[in-house]
Amino acid sequence: MCALLLIRGASESAKVNAVMVVIKLGVLLMFAAIAFTAFTADRFADFAPFGFGGIGLAAGSIFFSYIGLDAVSTGGDEVKDPQHTMPRAIIAALLIVTSVYVLVAVAALGAQPWKDFEGQSAGLAVILDNITGNIAGSTILAAGAVISIFSVTLVVMYGQTRILFAMGRDGLLPSVFARVSPRTMTPVTNTVIVAIVVAILAGFLPLDYLADMVSIGTLTAFIVVSIGVIVLRVREPDLPRGFKVPLYPVTPILSIAVCGYILFSLHWYTWIAFSAWVAVALIFYLVWSRHHSALNDGGDGAASVEGVEVVTPPEQR
């Protein structure tokens, strides 16, 4: 369903996703409002019982949920005035998402002892059942969770198809990834390939393994971006910038340090799997990508790939 929606077009996907996000936020705020009726401050007395090691491990396991912020940046080709609108959108999303996450976490931990969360597959729903004495609240929460999964899948698939599109346009991947349908203005083949791979991963790999893999990839990407900010400031100080990272160089240095700490808190098997993926990607790059890169022709990396019609989205014409 997500693939079909993405094939229809970015604007259609954005409208559907906006509705789902409103529903999702409403459900989470409903949970917080009910949970705070059973809030007990004494439940925070034994705060961080497993120390910084526990915080790092938990942060690494759940960090995948922030990949949506990274996915926003992949839609630059289909956004009006991206130099100014996208930084504001990313910062606003970060503030809203973090605030809602903290609100829900505080409400949940204040309504139930932290030890009771062990082994619960639907902790928030159980809290609502215990507080209200019926299943109405947990049923609404479960419906919101289904909508949330659909929304997240839609955004992540959108981001992945646009990343592969840009790589195909630059010659780093086969040209099939850069083909755009003249009717829908979307990379149809690219989207179908991504949908098949995502379906296989979702069907055969445990969710906790997938979450850790996405988290380690996201953390590594954030570190690379932070290093890139520092390198560009040093090598290209006069480069025109629509947005500058505030508190430079403190912000990118802190980003590298915190992401690095969380990385080394992840499970050992996550590192092995990640190393294998990186090895495969490097081999593909050395054997194929670097020989077909658009930079080999002396361009800026944004030229059209031979035999591929790269169509500018209607919003950018």
Helices, strands, pairings?
Blueprint lengths: L1 H7 L1 H26 L15 H12 L4 H6 L9 H30 L11 H10 L3 H34 L18 H17 L2 H29 L14 H14 L4 H25 L25
Helix pairs in contact: 1-7, 1-8, 2-5, 2-7, 6-7, 7-8, 9-10, 9-11
Description:
- Helices cover 66% and strands 0% of the residues.
- It is mainly α.
- The chain has two domains: 1-204, no CATH class; 206-290, no CATH class.
- Helix 2 packs antiparallel against helix 7 (136-169).
- It is globular.
- The protein starts with a helix and ends in a 25-residue tail after the last helix.
Task: Describe, in short, the structure shown.
The chain has 317 residues and is mainly α. It has 2 domains: 1-204, no CATH class; 206-290, no CATH class.
Note the gap between the termini: 29 Å
Q: Could you give the order of the helices and strands?
A: HHHHHHHHHHH
- The radius of gyration is 22 Å
Task: Report mean pLDDT, rounded to a whole number.
Answer: 84
Query: What's the story with the biggest beta sheet?
Result: none
Q: Please bin the fraction of helical residues.
A: 55-70%
Detail the poorly predicted runs.
299-317
Sum up the overall morphology in one term: globular
DSSP summary, beta strand count: 0
Overall structural class, as computed from helix and strand content, comes to: mainly alpha
Summed up, the helix count is 11
